[in-house]
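Me: I hope this is not a bother. Any chance you could explain this protein sequence and its structure tokens? It all follows right here:
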Amino acid sequence: MYTATSPRVSRMSSARTAYLLLWGFLLVNLVVVELLFVRAVPSHNTLGSIGRFLGLHLGLAMALQVLLIARLPFFERRIGMDKLTNWHRWTGFTIFWLVVLHPTFVLLGFAELDQISFFAEIPNLGGQMPVLLGMIAAGLVGVMAVTSVRAARKRLSYEAWHAVHLLVYVMLVLAVIHQVYEGRSFNASVPASVYWWGLWAFAIGALLTNRLLVPLVRNARHQLRVVAVVPETNDAVSVYVGGRGLERLRARPGQFFWWRFPGHNSWWQVNPWSLSAAPDGRTLRLTAKAIGATSGGLRQLPVGTRCYAEGPYGALTTVRRTKPDAVLIAGGIGITPIRALLEDPNLTGDIVVLYRARTAGDAVLLGELRQLAQQRGARLHVLTGRTSRENQPFSPAGLRGLVPDIAERDVYMCGPAAMADAVLHTLRALQVPPRQRHIEAFRMAV
């Protein structure tokens, strides 16, 4: 029987602690916001009160969103980007509807008070600068929400989508200014002001620290540069990055970095690419498929190009193991963290690798994978062909046929979101416990 070592038990406990902290933070702040609303000076009418109530929750949702995009290492390494991206997406749509409803009820309340129509009240309030800034911020939220709808995401490149979402920083500045002048509930008393602006100071401080200060310090220390560029297939390339003291990054197989190549790409172009080989303290290797302009341009990266990396992030690591045996599942370029995991000496026991690709020729790093599988005594299945009634490797019957004892194994999976959802559905049907499921999907994130 497998007995987890102390560090692994600690890390699993830390994952539960991370979830408890997230939910605890949300619930405690919701309670405080309700108290702020109750204790504040009431509005002139019911419609205005509803608008103020929604506005308070909108401010809280925005502060939570700032923390979610701050890339807090504690949560990134314990919960994983995939699950945090889900939080980010649902928080974003919550903000969108609050942005719609908050000004609507405020305008209705003032229209009733001024005895004019709803539409006549819009220019009346819009003539006040703090309100106008809030309206502009609301418009920017609308733009980001529209471009995040699935149909729009399919038509936008990652680079274009990411550029649009940089507007979040403009929106935040406008929203904070709006709150300074219009926040009746949290400016009503000293304790309320201390709480509210302390919350925002914490959120913005976390954002600046983890997205700007820490990466600047780390990159100045490690002096990352491209040392080799190796084409893998017609549309995939590996980039080797060297630097000083890379072992101090404490990167693990299965994790990823956010990568920038200043001078070769625009400063704002950043992509999350996983390590495609176990870090050895001398180089970091990423492997990317030419999907967008940035990934497609990696093949032309000159050796010596400066590299700017944020990380390491991700919970797809062996420290979360709970069983002696494992299944590694990859879809397309999702093979990169899976290949690195297969190289991890901490991945022991019986190992099965399932690699889903359109054709064997599309299977990136297949030669390395076969060699590693042979060295580790792992069983490798390359699953090709279109999905059809006859070819459903990730259906319950298909997955059980490939790995009959899957419910007794840890399952690591990385691939497209649709494939990840299908695998997760099957794992639930096969009664694989949640603690044994370690999944990261390709989802857009800022």
The longest strand covers residues 225-233. The chain has three domains: 6-217, 223-313, 318-442. Residues 318-442 form a domain with the Rossmann fold fold (CATH 3.40.50.80).
